[in-house]
Amino acid sequence: MIMKKRRFKSKKRQKHLFKWLFLTGLFFCLLIGAVYFLIFSSYLWISQLELETDRDSKYYQKEEVEKIIWESLNKKVFQIVSQKNIVLAPIETIQKQVLERMPQLSSITLQRRLPNTLLVKIEERQSIGVWCQAQRDESGLSQATSTQEQIEEPKQERRVVKQCFLIDKQGIVFKETLLVKSTLLINIYDLKDQKIRLGQEAVLPNIMKFILALNQELGKTEGKKREQLFLGADFEIISIEDVRMATSAGWQIYFNPAYSAVSQVRALQALLDKEEILFEYIDLRIKGRAYYK
Questions:
Q1: Would you say domain 129-292 falls under CATH 3.40.50?
Q2: Where are the domains of the chain?
Q3: CATH value of 44-124 in 3.40.50.1100, 3.30.420.40, 3.10.20.310, 1.20.1250.20
Q4: Which has the higher per-residue pLDDT, 193 or 174?
Q5: Residue 155 C-alpha from the chain's centroid
Q6: Which residues contact 135 (CB under 8 A, 6 or more apart)?
Q7: Residues 6 or more apart from 164 whose CB is under 8 A from it?
Q8: How far are the Cα atoms of 132, 189, 202, 229, 234 from residue 162, in angstroms, in the given order?
Q9: Averaged pLDDT of the chain
Protein backbone atom coordinates (compact mmCIF):
# COMPACT_ATOMS: atom_id res chain seq x y z
CA MET A 1 0.00 0.00 0.00
CA ILE A 2 2.83 2.34 0.94
CA MET A 3 4.70 1.48 -2.28
CA LYS A 4 1.64 2.39 -4.38
CA LYS A 5 1.34 5.76 -2.65
CA ARG A 6 5.01 6.52 -3.31
CA ARG A 7 4.68 5.62 -6.98
CA PHE A 8 1.57 7.80 -7.26
CA LYS A 9 3.37 10.77 -5.67
CA SER A 10 6.38 10.23 -7.90
CA LYS A 11 4.23 10.23 -11.04
CA LYS A 12 2.43 13.37 -9.81
CA ARG A 13 5.74 15.16 -9.29
CA GLN A 14 6.93 14.15 -12.75
CA LYS A 15 3.70 15.46 -14.22
CA HIS A 16 4.10 18.82 -12.42
CA LEU A 17 7.74 19.01 -13.49
CA PHE A 18 6.85 18.31 -17.11
CA LYS A 19 4.10 20.93 -16.97
CA TRP A 20 6.49 23.51 -15.44
CA LEU A 21 9.15 22.78 -18.05
CA PHE A 22 6.59 23.04 -20.84
CA LEU A 23 5.20 26.38 -19.61
CA THR A 24 8.70 27.75 -19.01
CA GLY A 25 9.80 26.72 -22.49
CA LEU A 26 6.64 28.21 -24.00
CA PHE A 27 7.25 31.47 -22.11
CA PHE A 28 10.82 31.78 -23.38
CA CYS A 29 9.72 30.92 -26.92
CA LEU A 30 7.09 33.67 -26.79
CA LEU A 31 9.63 36.07 -25.25
CA ILE A 32 12.20 35.34 -27.96
CA GLY A 33 9.53 35.73 -30.61
CA ALA A 34 8.39 39.05 -29.14
CA VAL A 35 11.97 40.36 -28.94
CA TYR A 36 12.64 39.26 -32.51
CA PHE A 37 9.44 40.96 -33.67
CA LEU A 38 10.26 44.19 -31.83
CA ILE A 39 13.83 44.33 -33.11
CA PHE A 40 13.78 42.85 -36.59
CA SER A 41 10.21 43.18 -37.85
CA SER A 42 9.86 45.83 -40.56
CA TYR A 43 6.37 46.54 -39.21
CA LEU A 44 7.96 48.70 -36.48
CA TRP A 45 10.57 50.32 -38.71
CA ILE A 46 10.21 54.09 -39.02
CA SER A 47 8.98 54.94 -42.49
CA GLN A 48 7.59 58.42 -42.00
CA LEU A 49 8.67 61.74 -40.43
CA GLU A 50 6.06 64.37 -39.55
CA LEU A 51 7.58 67.83 -39.07
CA GLU A 52 5.74 70.49 -37.08
CA THR A 53 6.82 74.14 -36.71
CA ASP A 54 5.13 77.08 -35.04
CA ARG A 55 5.89 79.39 -37.99
CA ASP A 56 7.29 79.38 -41.51
CA SER A 57 11.02 78.71 -41.54
CA LYS A 58 13.35 81.61 -42.40
CA TYR A 59 16.83 80.25 -41.86
CA TYR A 60 16.65 76.53 -42.65
CA GLN A 61 15.08 73.95 -44.96
CA LYS A 62 12.97 71.11 -43.55
CA GLU A 63 14.77 68.76 -45.94
CA GLU A 64 18.01 69.44 -44.04
CA VAL A 65 16.45 68.26 -40.79
CA GLU A 66 15.01 65.14 -42.42
CA LYS A 67 18.36 64.29 -44.00
CA ILE A 68 20.19 64.36 -40.63
CA ILE A 69 17.50 62.22 -38.97
CA TRP A 70 17.51 59.60 -41.74
CA GLU A 71 21.32 59.44 -41.69
CA SER A 72 21.18 58.47 -38.03
CA LEU A 73 18.25 56.06 -38.40
CA ASN A 74 19.97 54.18 -41.23
CA LYS A 75 22.89 53.26 -38.99
CA LYS A 76 23.00 49.86 -37.26
CA VAL A 77 23.94 48.88 -33.72
CA PHE A 78 26.83 46.37 -33.79
CA GLN A 79 26.26 46.20 -37.57
CA ILE A 80 23.18 44.05 -36.87
CA VAL A 81 20.26 45.90 -35.28
CA SER A 82 18.72 48.75 -37.30
CA GLN A 83 18.13 52.06 -35.53
CA LYS A 84 15.07 52.48 -37.73
CA ASN A 85 13.15 50.43 -35.19
CA ILE A 86 10.78 52.87 -33.50
CA VAL A 87 11.38 51.30 -30.09
CA LEU A 88 15.18 51.40 -30.35
CA ALA A 89 15.58 54.71 -32.23
CA PRO A 90 18.14 56.88 -30.31
CA ILE A 91 15.88 59.90 -29.88
CA GLU A 92 18.15 62.00 -27.63
CA THR A 93 21.22 61.34 -29.77
CA ILE A 94 19.40 62.40 -32.94
CA GLN A 95 18.13 65.59 -31.29
CA LYS A 96 21.68 66.47 -30.22
CA GLN A 97 23.07 65.79 -33.71
CA VAL A 98 20.47 68.00 -35.39
CA LEU A 99 21.12 70.94 -33.03
CA GLU A 100 24.90 70.61 -33.45
CA ARG A 101 24.65 70.67 -37.24
CA MET A 102 21.85 73.26 -37.43
CA PRO A 103 22.57 76.12 -34.99
CA GLN A 104 19.69 78.09 -36.49
CA LEU A 105 17.33 75.85 -34.51
CA SER A 106 16.76 76.61 -30.82
CA SER A 107 15.12 73.26 -30.04
CA ILE A 108 13.94 70.01 -31.62
CA THR A 109 11.78 67.30 -30.04
CA LEU A 110 11.22 63.79 -31.42
CA GLN A 111 8.24 61.71 -30.31
CA ARG A 112 7.45 58.09 -31.22
CA ARG A 113 4.09 57.43 -32.81
CA LEU A 114 3.39 53.72 -33.25
CA PRO A 115 3.77 51.80 -35.39
CA ASN A 116 6.23 53.60 -37.71
CA THR A 117 6.12 57.41 -37.44
CA LEU A 118 8.37 59.97 -35.78
CA LEU A 119 6.78 63.30 -34.88
CA VAL A 120 9.40 66.07 -35.14
CA LYS A 121 8.67 69.42 -33.45
CA ILE A 122 11.03 72.25 -34.43
CA GLU A 123 11.57 75.70 -32.96
CA GLU A 124 13.66 78.14 -34.96
CA ARG A 125 15.85 80.85 -33.46
CA GLN A 126 14.46 84.36 -33.87
CA SER A 127 16.90 87.14 -34.74
CA ILE A 128 16.79 90.36 -32.71
CA GLY A 129 19.72 91.92 -34.54
CA VAL A 130 23.30 91.53 -35.75
CA TRP A 131 26.46 90.83 -33.75
CA CYS A 132 29.82 91.76 -35.29
CA GLN A 133 33.45 91.30 -34.40
CA ALA A 134 35.15 94.66 -34.80
CA GLN A 135 38.25 96.69 -34.07
CA ARG A 136 39.10 100.37 -34.01
CA ASP A 137 39.99 101.84 -37.38
CA GLU A 138 43.18 103.72 -36.61
CA SER A 139 43.37 105.20 -40.08
CA GLY A 140 40.10 107.03 -39.47
CA LEU A 141 38.55 105.44 -42.52
CA SER A 142 35.82 102.86 -42.46
CA GLN A 143 36.92 99.64 -44.16
CA ALA A 144 35.02 96.58 -45.37
CA THR A 145 35.75 92.98 -46.14
CA SER A 146 34.00 90.67 -48.60
CA THR A 147 31.58 89.58 -45.87
CA GLN A 148 30.30 93.02 -44.84
CA GLU A 149 28.84 96.24 -46.17
CA GLN A 150 30.40 99.70 -46.12
CA ILE A 151 28.72 101.60 -43.29
CA GLU A 152 28.71 105.36 -42.78
CA GLU A 153 29.41 106.08 -39.08
CA PRO A 154 30.18 109.13 -36.95
CA LYS A 155 33.88 109.99 -36.87
CA GLN A 156 34.57 108.77 -33.31
CA GLU A 157 32.78 105.51 -34.06
CA ARG A 158 34.65 104.48 -37.19
CA ARG A 159 35.69 100.85 -36.88
CA VAL A 160 36.74 97.90 -38.98
CA VAL A 161 33.95 95.35 -38.99
CA LYS A 162 34.98 91.73 -39.46
CA GLN A 163 32.49 88.88 -39.43
CA CYS A 164 28.82 89.51 -38.63
CA PHE A 165 26.16 87.05 -37.49
CA LEU A 166 22.47 87.05 -36.69
CA ILE A 167 21.96 86.86 -32.92
CA ASP A 168 18.96 85.83 -30.81
CA LYS A 169 17.77 87.16 -27.45
CA GLN A 170 19.88 84.57 -25.60
CA GLY A 171 23.04 86.01 -27.17
CA ILE A 172 23.55 82.99 -29.46
CA VAL A 173 24.91 83.62 -32.97
CA PHE A 174 23.46 81.28 -35.56
CA LYS A 175 23.88 82.54 -39.14
CA GLU A 176 26.49 84.62 -40.93
CA THR A 177 25.10 87.82 -42.39
CA LEU A 178 25.94 91.30 -43.63
CA LEU A 179 25.86 94.39 -41.43
CA VAL A 180 22.73 96.42 -42.15
CA LYS A 181 21.65 99.67 -40.53
CA SER A 182 17.96 99.59 -39.62
CA THR A 183 15.70 101.12 -36.97
CA LEU A 184 14.19 97.63 -36.54
CA LEU A 185 17.48 95.90 -35.73
CA ILE A 186 19.97 96.00 -32.88
CA ASN A 187 23.60 96.12 -33.97
CA ILE A 188 26.14 94.90 -31.41
CA TYR A 189 29.89 95.33 -31.90
CA ASP A 190 32.39 93.38 -29.81
CA LEU A 191 36.01 94.52 -29.77
CA LYS A 192 37.35 91.34 -28.15
CA ASP A 193 39.47 89.23 -30.46
CA GLN A 194 37.81 85.83 -30.08
CA LYS A 195 37.10 82.84 -32.25
CA ILE A 196 33.38 82.45 -32.74
CA ARG A 197 31.37 79.59 -34.17
CA LEU A 198 27.71 79.21 -35.03
CA GLY A 199 25.58 78.10 -32.10
CA GLN A 200 27.96 79.72 -29.60
CA GLU A 201 27.07 82.32 -26.96
CA ALA A 202 28.64 85.55 -28.23
CA VAL A 203 27.19 87.90 -25.60
CA LEU A 204 26.89 87.11 -21.90
CA PRO A 205 23.25 86.63 -20.79
CA ASN A 206 23.27 89.56 -18.33
CA ILE A 207 24.68 91.94 -20.95
CA MET A 208 22.25 90.70 -23.61
CA LYS A 209 19.35 91.16 -21.21
CA PHE A 210 20.58 94.67 -20.37
CA ILE A 211 20.89 95.71 -24.03
CA LEU A 212 17.37 94.47 -24.81
CA ALA A 213 15.94 96.30 -21.78
CA LEU A 214 17.91 99.43 -22.66
CA ASN A 215 16.70 99.38 -26.25
CA GLN A 216 13.12 98.99 -25.05
CA GLU A 217 13.36 101.91 -22.61
CA LEU A 218 15.07 104.18 -25.13
CA GLY A 219 12.31 103.34 -27.60
CA LYS A 220 9.81 105.00 -25.27
CA THR A 221 11.44 108.43 -25.67
CA GLU A 222 9.56 110.93 -27.80
CA GLY A 223 10.00 114.07 -29.81
CA LYS A 224 13.35 115.85 -29.99
CA LYS A 225 15.05 113.43 -27.56
CA ARG A 226 14.13 110.51 -29.78
CA GLU A 227 15.53 112.29 -32.85
CA GLN A 228 18.78 112.88 -30.96
CA LEU A 229 19.14 109.27 -29.87
CA PHE A 230 17.91 107.03 -32.62
CA LEU A 231 18.98 106.29 -36.11
CA GLY A 232 19.14 102.64 -35.09
CA ALA A 233 20.16 100.84 -31.95
CA ASP A 234 23.95 100.65 -32.23
CA PHE A 235 25.79 99.17 -29.22
CA GLU A 236 29.45 98.48 -28.57
CA ILE A 237 30.59 96.12 -25.79
CA ILE A 238 33.79 97.35 -24.17
CA SER A 239 33.65 95.29 -20.97
CA ILE A 240 31.14 93.72 -18.57
CA GLU A 241 30.66 97.18 -16.99
CA ASP A 242 30.87 99.31 -20.11
CA VAL A 243 28.39 99.23 -23.00
CA ARG A 244 28.32 102.22 -25.34
CA MET A 245 25.63 103.41 -27.68
CA ALA A 246 26.16 105.64 -30.71
CA THR A 247 23.44 108.25 -31.20
CA SER A 248 22.13 109.55 -34.48
CA ALA A 249 23.63 112.95 -33.61
CA GLY A 250 27.13 111.46 -33.61
CA TRP A 251 27.94 111.38 -29.88
CA GLN A 252 27.98 108.43 -27.48
CA ILE A 253 26.29 107.32 -24.27
CA TYR A 254 28.17 105.08 -21.82
CA PHE A 255 26.06 102.61 -19.85
CA ASN A 256 26.84 100.12 -17.08
CA PRO A 257 25.09 96.70 -17.37
CA ALA A 258 25.61 96.15 -13.63
CA TYR A 259 22.83 98.67 -12.91
CA SER A 260 19.20 99.02 -13.95
CA ALA A 261 18.59 100.05 -17.56
CA VAL A 262 15.44 101.90 -16.46
CA SER A 263 17.27 104.09 -13.93
CA GLN A 264 20.04 104.95 -16.40
CA VAL A 265 17.55 105.96 -19.10
CA ARG A 266 15.69 108.14 -16.59
CA ALA A 267 18.94 109.88 -15.67
CA LEU A 268 19.65 110.36 -19.38
CA GLN A 269 16.21 111.84 -20.02
CA ALA A 270 16.54 114.22 -17.07
CA LEU A 271 19.89 115.47 -18.41
CA LEU A 272 18.56 115.93 -21.94
CA ASP A 273 15.57 117.87 -20.61
CA LYS A 274 17.84 120.10 -18.55
CA GLU A 275 20.80 120.74 -20.82
CA GLU A 276 20.51 122.26 -24.30
CA ILE A 277 24.09 121.72 -25.45
CA LEU A 278 26.02 119.70 -28.00
CA PHE A 279 27.48 116.63 -26.33
CA GLU A 280 30.62 114.66 -27.07
CA TYR A 281 29.42 111.93 -24.70
CA ILE A 282 27.23 111.24 -21.66
CA ASP A 283 28.62 108.86 -19.04
CA LEU A 284 26.08 106.97 -16.88
CA ARG A 285 28.40 104.20 -15.66
CA ILE A 286 28.50 105.42 -12.05
CA LYS A 287 25.26 104.68 -10.26
CA GLY A 288 23.13 107.78 -9.61
CA ARG A 289 25.46 110.07 -11.57
CA ALA A 290 25.48 111.49 -15.09
CA TYR A 291 28.68 113.03 -16.45
CA TYR A 292 28.98 114.69 -19.83
CA LYS A 293 31.33 116.58 -22.05
A1: yes
A2: 44-124, 129-292
A3: 3.10.20.310
A4: 174
A5: 35
A6: 159, 160, 162, 191, 193
A7: 130, 131, 132, 133, 147, 148, 176, 177, 178, 179
A8: 7, 10, 14, 26, 16
A9: 79
